[in-house]
Amino acid sequence: MAVKIQTTKGTIEIENDVIAMIVGGAATDNYGVVGMASQNPLRDGVNQILNGDNYAKGVVVRQTSNGVAVDVFIVVGYGMKISEISKSVQARVKNDLNMMLGIVADEVNVTVQGVRMLED
Fold first, then answer.
1. Over the chain (120 residues), what is each successive 10-residue block's mean pLDDT?
2. Three-state DSSP class for 83?
3. To pair with 38 at 20 to 30 A between CA atoms, which of 7, 19, 72, 101?
4. Total number of domains constituting the chain
5. Which residues of 22-58 are buried (b: 16+ CB within 10 A; e: fewer)?
């Protein structure tokens, strides 16, 4: 399913995989985020950290009346303040979606699927 944006010159359709790549990149660029996790860890592997090709497994995009709602599944570093990391991910995802695609994210829900030791 694609997100559709109506403009004066026509309709723009943006596939969910494109949005997932931008959301995944924005989420993993935050300090304290080890990587993206699967939204269904039992099916895709509990300990699997998703790479750039699989960000779509860790992001759910739903179209709302005013924009989109995004669910992001992440793994954070051990000893990090989860609430601050989640707020940072929310702000970065909203900003990147607006700047790169012109999409307003009504909701950015961050789910922490696990905690890992940070590798130096």
1. 82 88 90 83 58 76 84 91 94 94 90 79
2. helix
3. 101
4. 1
5. bbbbbbbebebbbbbbbbebeeeeeebbbeeeebbbb
Full-model pTM? 0.83
Range(s) of the domain holding residue 95: 2-116
Transcribe 18-79 into DSSP letters.
HHHHHHHHHHHTSTTEEEE--SSHHHH-TTPPB-GGGGGGGEEEEE-SSSEEEEEEEEEETT
Query: Contact, 85 vs 72, CB < 8 A?
Result: no
Q: Which CATH number fits the domain that encloses residue 48?
A: 3.30.70.1350
